Structure formats: C-alpha cells, structure tokens
TrEMBL record:
<keyword id="KW-0732">Signal</keyword>
<dbReference type="InterPro" id="IPR033932">
    <property type="entry name" value="YtcJ-like"/>
</dbReference>
<dbReference type="InterPro" id="IPR032466">
    <property type="entry name" value="Metal_Hydrolase"/>
</dbReference>
<protein>
    <submittedName>
        <fullName>Amidohydrolase</fullName>
    </submittedName>
</protein>
<dbReference type="InterPro" id="IPR013108">
    <property type="entry name" value="Amidohydro_3"/>
</dbReference>
<feature type="domain" description="Amidohydrolase 3">
    <location>
        <begin position="78"/>
        <end position="551"/>
    </location>
</feature>
<feature type="signal peptide">
    <location>
        <begin position="1"/>
        <end position="20"/>
    </location>
</feature>
<dbReference type="InterPro" id="IPR011059">
    <property type="entry name" value="Metal-dep_hydrolase_composite"/>
</dbReference>
<dbReference type="Pfam" id="PF07969">
    <property type="entry name" value="Amidohydro_3"/>
</dbReference>
Length: 553
C-alpha cells in the first residue's frame, strides 16, 4: 500500500472512531440543537484525537467527526462555522478561590505594586472611592517585587487611618499588614501567641505583620458581606472567568452558607459556572455533611474538604525539614498539630469525603503524605489530593504513586516564585521545588490550576508556565528547571480531562466526546503549535456551557 493510501485509510478509520453514533440509518436522533463545524478541534480523548466538527443535543455532545459527516447526518437549529479556529474542551481550574475572588473585586487591588508607597497610594484611592465602608481592605502586595524586599510596617497606615481598621493581605493570603485600629479590635498585643501563626514584634512593638492563623484574628472582625453582595460577587467572578475560557472551577475552602447560595443561584438560573466545592473543615460543615453525605448536581459537586497544613514560602510560613536558607534557625510551621491532621483524615475517610490538603514545604508534604498513606493503605481510587505539592524531598516522591495521591499544582506559582525561591531554599532544595514532570510520572496524570486570586485567573498563563517555565517577559532564557516542564499535550490534559478526573468527573466533562457536557471554547490561536512567546496572548473568542453561548468576545 502506498503512503498516500495508508494516510487515507488512517483518516477514514479515525473519522469512524470519532463519529461514533453518526453511522447507520437516519433516525429521530438526527435532530440537534447546535452543530459546530470547520474547526480545529482538540477532543482531548484518550488518543488525543483531532476533529473538525461535532453536534450538540440537550446540552451534551451527540457526535464528533468531520464537517461533512456531522452536517450530513444532523440538522440543527443553530450552526457555528468555526472558520478554522481552534476549539478546546472548557478549561477546568483545579484549584482556585472563586467566591473570594469575586469579593476581592471591590477591595484595593495591590497586585504588581512595585513599592509600599504605591500600596499606600492605591489604598488611599480605594478609600476615596468607598468612603463609608467600616473597614479598608486590600489584597495582592508582594514585598519580593519591591526594591526593598522586607515586610512593610503599619506606621503609615496608623497615621492616615487612625480611626478606621485596615487589613491588607499579601498575594499568597498567608501574611497580612494590619493597622493599630484593626489590631485593637482583634485584641492583639505584642504578647499574643498562637499555634500556626505569628504576630511580628520588633523592639517590643507590633509591626502590623500577621502570618497565617494570626490573620484570622483580624479578618474575623471584618463585617461579613450581605447576601446581595455575595450574589454580586459570584456573578462578577463568573463573568470574568467565562471570558478566559473556564467552565468549571474548584473553589478551595467554602462554608455551607456559600455552598447553599451557589446551589440556590444555580437552581434559579442566576449562576451557570460549574463549581467543585472544597469545604472548610468547620464544625458546622463537618456536622452537616458527615450526616448527609456528598451532594451533586450537574453544576455543583460537594464531596471534598480543604485542609491547610502549613503556610506559604514567600512569607516563610511553609514548613521545612531544614531551616530557611535566608532566616537562621527558622523552619516555618504547621497550622495544626499532627494529631489534628490524623483525626480529620480518619473522619473524612470514614464518611467518604476526599481530603485535599494545602502543603507547600517539604516537611508538611512528608507529614501529610505519611498520614494519607496510613489511612489509604496502598493503591486506591479515593483521589485524595495534595494541593500545591511545591517542595518534595526526593525520599517522599514515590509516596504519591504508592498511595494514589493526586498532586494538584499551579504552574504560575513556579514562575512567580522563581526569582526568590532559591534564596529561601538554597541551591540543593530548590532543585526539588515545583517538580511537575516528576509528580506527573507518579500516577500518570496531574491536574492544573491557578490559585486565583493569588495568581491571575488566566489559564493561558498556566499553560505557558507549565510548558515554557518562563514569566510574561519570557525569562529566564531556556526556562526555569526545564527538566520538570510539561509537554503541550500534558498541559492541556492537566487543564481539562485530568482536572476533571481529580474531581471524579471525567465521565461527564474534560473532553469533547459523545455523552459529555458540551462545554467548550473557541480560541484565536492553537496552543499546540504557536511559539511559546504567543501563548500568554491567546484570546477566548467564545465560551459555551451545555452548548449555550455564555461569553462572546
């Protein structure tokens, strides 16, 4: 057989495999709601097949194939000519803070500030815009981006806002700066001590810096948003995330009241975004969900709890096996006792819930991997996750595979932290940080997310950081620790089908295949072929959920 004939035969075989239900005689099933044709479709099925067209009926993919096959078999009330543009399954963010992001849209945006002076300027502008709020809040500063890479102090805030409480959260959410008024309302003094947190004191006086559990003492005093404000926050978050191609978000850390609100908005048609909810381990959540079990609809899935084991590397709260290279005799800290982690793991296993634990440092990862192993016993399909999995001692890497533990990572953390992470960890440990490829090899899949609003909501940044391991300016040349870069196919799977799998949802979403939700996006370029320098510039032209248009550029 000639090469040309072999190619033709292979094409016909592939077309038949993808088309599936399109073969045979015409029946009533030939009616469809939507036909998408003339596209560069990445199905992200097991074979990573490509197609040209697909039909949608009742919110699900009916058939996939060539444009000629699909248009020849189906008649639809709506057709979309993709004009050769690229189509992917809707992106799934495997770790984000969707609700918190929505709330943050009305706080001072301190991301990318280049000095504390600029932070103060933005906070002052925010106060002028909202002069009557009880508290001034802001989020996103990072002292590592400033010329002076030290934590700021509260002195200026005390002078400007002596009678109004202020709390400004660091980019990672694991440190904050509060003024004296806020500290007074929280009852914090230089003598305040707690497990898993720190009130910074210098020369007997508080600087205003709070780390991890200390933040909660102040943030708990901030008035809770009204139901109307919460609804608005969720709708604003949805609009922005649809615009970047997200159709499912894993919201890491929700209370029952917020879960109920999301469900209510879903039922009323006020919110469309699919949400995989990770519950806070509050007593209320435990009491209710341990009694009633997981909860599932087409748009909401409640079957996991989010646990925090340690803090963040940037604020030196990540729990390390050896001291920080840039802070003598400081190891970071755990946010609870080992016994508390063992107790919650046993409870979650008993009641059939997935355990998803934030673990950054190599000490925290070791502890949680061992606790997971004690509970899980060996290979299993419970899909317990380690969120972030940032620094892994080589002796612990095989535990992910041994106990079927899922590493849930956020590639932009690597490209945000790479400028200073070596200072925290030293030359030896930095080699074992952000080891995405090595983690992938443990179970054969790795879900990817952003951790927004800690990072940008844009999943194209996730893709670029995973593949090129570079920042927005394409630095460093050649990429950061490229031995742990992912291939383009692996990155796309991590943002779609592998993320779905980590949520127990691979049978209903994550790929463009018959029987799955018709969640897909139309993009202005092909991430599989463009130069890495173009990946971050990709634009979503259309986003569809259940075959319905929810965003158009």
């Amino acid at each position: 057989m000639t090469t040309k004939l072999r190619t033709l035969a292979a094409s016909l075989l592939l077309g038949g495999a993808l088309l599936g239900s399109c073969t045979g005689t015409k029946t009533n099933s030939d009616a469809a709601d939507l036909i998408v044709y003339n596209g560069n479709v990445y199905t992200v099925n097991d074979s990573f097949d490509k197609a040209e067209a697909f039909a949608v009926k009742d919110g699900k993919i009916e058939a996939v194939g060539t444009s000629e096959e699909i248009r020849g078999k189906y008649k639809a009330t709506e057709e979309l000519d993709a004009e050769g543009k690229t189509i992917y399954p809707g992106f799934i963010d495997a770790h984000a803070h969707f609700y918190r992001y929505g709330l943050s849209l009305v706080s001072a945006d301190l991301v990318d500030t280049e000095s504390f002076k600029e932070v103060v300027q933005k906070v002052t502008e925010q106060r002028e815009k909202y002069p009557d709020t009880e508290w001034i809040t802001g989020r996103g500063w990072d002292q590592n981006d400033w010329a002076v890479k030290e934590f700021p102090t509260k002195d200026t805030l005390d002078l400007l806002f002596p009678d109004t409480p202020v709390i400004l959260t660091r980019i990672d959410g694991h440190a904050a700066l509060a003024n004296q008024k806020a500290l007074d309302l929280a009852g914090i003094t230089p003598q305040t001590k707690m497990v898993g947190g720190l009130v910074e004191v210098e020369n007997g006086k508080m600087t205003g810096i709070l780390v991890d559990n200390a933040i909660d003492m102040v943030s708990s005093k901030v008035p809770a948003p009204s139901e109307a404000e919460s609804r608005e926050a969720l709708k604003n978050a949805e609009a922005n995330t649809f615009a970047v191609g997200l159709t499912t978000v894993d919201d890491a850390g929700l209370d029952k009241s917020t879960v109920d609100l999301i469900d209510n908005m879903h039922q009323k048609g006020e919110l469309q975004m699919r949400v995989y909810a990770m519950l806070n381990p509050s007593q209320e959540n435990q009491d209710y969900y341990f009694k009633n079990g997981p909860y599932k609809t087409d748009r909401l899935n409640v079957r996991s709890f989010k646990i925090y084991s340690d803090g963040a590397l940037g604020s030196r709260g990540a729990s390390l096996l050896k001291p920080y290279a840039d802070k003598h005799n400081h190891y970071g800290f755990l946010l609870a006792s080992e016994q508390e982690f063992r107790d919650i793991a046993a409870k979650l296993n008993e009641h059939g819930f997935q355990m998803n634990t934030h673990a950054i440092g190599d000490s925290a990862n070791r502890l949680l991997l061992d606790i997971y192993g004690e509970v899980l016993g060996g290979e299993n399909d419970k899909r317990w996750r380690i969120e972030h999995s940032q620094i892994i001692n080589p002796a612990d890497m095989n535990k992910f595979g041994k106990y079927s533990i899922v590493p849930s990572v956020q590639p932009t953390h690597a490209t945000s932290d790479m400028y200073w992470a070596g200072d925290r960890l030293g030359k030896e440990r930095i080699r074992h940080a952000y080891p995405f490829k090595e983690l992938l090899e443990q179970n054969g899949y790795i879900p990817l997310g952003t951790d927004f609003p800690v990072e940008s909501i844009n999943p194209f940044y996730t893709f670029h950081s995973a593949v090129a391991r570079q920042d927005a300016k394409d630095w460093p040349e050649g990429g950061f620790q490229m031995e742990n870069a992912l291939s383009r196919e692996e990155a796309l799977r991590g943002m779609t089908i592998w993320a779905a799998r980590s949520n127990f949802e691979e049978s209903e979403k994550g790929s463009i295949e018959p029987g799955k939700f018709a969640d897909f996006i139309l993009v202005d370029r092909d991430l599989m072929t463009v130069e890495p320098t173009q990946m971050r510039e990709a634009q979503v032209l259309r986003t569809y959920l259940n075959g319905k248009l929810v965003y158009k550029k």
